[in-house]
Design brief:
The termini are far apart. The chain has a domain of about 210 residues. The chain contains 15 helices and two strands. It is globular, with a radius of gyration of 20 Å. By secondary structure, the protein is mostly helical.
Length: about 350
């Protein structure tokens, strides 16, 4: 093979290596984390269970953005728009059409996949900061669109829509919050497994080849428009599922719940968790859910400033996010095992 051919093949090979080595954690660590997620809710109050459920929901949304940005190299600040579409899909189906909440989850995913896939077509001409600005505009416009009078019979307009929280099925002896936590945990695991398998598949390697070098990927026969729009669609679908779960858990959807602050929080969670590292989605979600509360506990009047200082400290100490922490701990364990 010539030198030119070697250089063209390199991005795809690097993408394959990244997907297999750095997209997941070890089986032992995964099982320990799963055991904790299953057992901890049995010993805490309902409010803590609710917070843990929201951590899982935001983790799904962050993972979805990680597929788009970490997987295909496309930046997006419009995830709150897809989150809103998923939330309203669940709310409208449950309250206006009396459809079971479990059915609304895949429905929200399919609708958001179509929405994201179609949005990906005009975005094909954009990249970098220009794509970020286009998705930013989508996030800013979505709350205003949801307030339009033409949609008010379904969305409730400015007042929003109240969603009925479901009870545990089959007469299971658990609270609504605990049932929704385990329901969300199950969906989170399914989405995580699907995401890992996606990025390890041929389509995932094509996306990462586009991320590394679009020209080289195109020269190797990768269909750029197809895989870039597919990445947008899959990311939007998972974000929509997170939005549907959020609507069911919070019991309320309103336009002002899906502002640009939500999109920035999801983006921040991805950076803190580690761009391109799927397990970091959970760590990033923990950060955006609990750190603002910690900042407010330190100083209610200056909670924003305290949060900013904490964020700067995290970025300065661990610039690669939770992935850097995980690799450091793994290296320490390896040294301890050596005789």
């Amino acid at each position: 093979m010539s030198t030119v051919q070697d250089s063209l093949a390199k991005p795809a090979a690097v993408g394959a290596a990244v997907s297999k080595k750095t997209m997941t954690v070890s089986t032992t660590a995964s099982l320990i984390l799963l055991a904790l997620l299953i057992v901890v809710p049995l010993f805490v109050k309902n409010f803590i269970i609710f917070q843990m459920t929201m951590v899982l929901i935001y983790a799904i949304a962050i993972l979805a953005l990680n597929i788009l940005t970490g997987g295909s190299g496309q930046f997006s600040l419009g995830q709150s728009a897809f989150y809103a579409v998923g939330a309203y899909t669940a709310g409208i189906m449950m309250e206006h059409y009396n459809i079971n909440y479990a059915v609304t989850i895949p429905a929200a995913g399919m609708i958001c996949f179509l929405f994201g896939f179609l949005f990906g077509f005009p975005a094909l001409r954009l990249s970098g900061v220009y794509l970020a600005l286009a998705t930013f505009a989508l996030a800013v416009a979505m709350p205003q669109l949801l307030k339009l009078g033409v949609f008010e019979p379904w969305t409730g307009g400015v007042q929003g829509l109240v969603v009925t929280k479901p009870d545990a099925p089959f007469g299971l002896p658990m609270s609504q919050d605990m049932w929704l936590y385990y329901f969300t945990l199950f969906i989170s695991i399914v989405i995580y497994v699907l995401s890992v398998n996606l990025l390890r598949s041929r389509s995932g390697r094509a996306m990462m080849a586009i991320r590394d070098n679009q020209i080289a990927a195109s020269a190797m026969g990768v269909d750029l428009p197809l895989y870039k729009t597919l990445a947008f669609g899959i990311s939007a679908a998972f974000t929509g599922i997170a939005g549907a779960l959020g609507a069911i858990v919070v019991q309320f959807v309103a336009p002002d719940s899906f502002t640009i602050q939500l999109a920035i929080a999801i983006f921040l969670g991805m950076v803190v968790g580690g761009v391109g590292w799927l397990p970091g989605s959970l760590a990033g979600s923990v950060f955006i859910v609990f750190v603002p509360n910690i900042a407010e506990g330190i100083s209610k009047g200056l909670s924003g400033a305290v949060f900013g200082v904490l964020l700067i400290a995290v970025i300065f100490l661990v610039p690669h996010g939770a992935r850097q922490v995980a690799y450091t701990i793994e290296a320490l364990f390896r040294k301890m095992k050596k005789p």
